[in-house]
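User: I'll paste a sequence; please echo it back and then give the predicted structure.

Assistant: Echoing your sequence first, then the prediction.
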Amino acid sequence: MTSAELPPSSERHPPTRLLALGRPVARRLVSAWYDVRISGAPQVPSDGPVILAANHIGWLDGPLLAALAPRPVHALTKTEMFHGAAGKLLCRAGQIPLDRFRTDMSAVRQSLRVLRDGGTLGIFPEGKRGPGDLRRFHHGAAYLALVTGAPVVPVTFFGTRLPGGSSDSVPPRGARIDLVHGESWQVDQQPWPRTKEQVLHASVLLLQHMRRELDRARALTGRDLPGPLPAGQTEKDPDTGFVKRGTP
């Protein structure tokens, strides 16, 4: 599928200059501070639209995805992060603000524009930091894959939060951090109108695929997830998607 065949969007493409210029510097800094191990990078197509869908265990996940992914990433990022100097930096680096508590059409249009233009979109289907075990799973990644036909590459993080660590904690210097890119998943592009049933079915298939890739990443690295956040650390998140233990 060519980018011209993807759905049009009048939304402005997020800027890329700062993102492109800053990535080499960020990679050097991260590699000097942590023992970073990246697996499966060739799973990410070298060109064309792609969605990187990652588990979410710690504060570092977003910055590391932007810095270390094989291609510059425009990640959907909660609007709460877009305040002050950090918020300005996120905007200039092409990250996409997302209001998780309503249907945020601006975020959807910006995401479609990134994919239409052959870019890389980052998304955390769990919606918030936590155990990273994909027991929570929102439908946004599957919806965007269904609309565009773009492949979804699962990304599994290990080590960005230590067991028992708080939501905003980071591992100490020298800690090992693993990023594992899994086998891509793709669904046929579905022209408008798309039904809730189609989105739900695609989301079930993607969740099952990402859970298999999570198990594969565990076996590949010999690592496990950090477990739940400490009591009282869980942030609010809308009860949409698959939000109950063991569902679907």
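Strands lie at 35-39, 50-54, 73-78, 96-98, 120-123, 152-158, 176-181. The radius of gyration is 17 Å.
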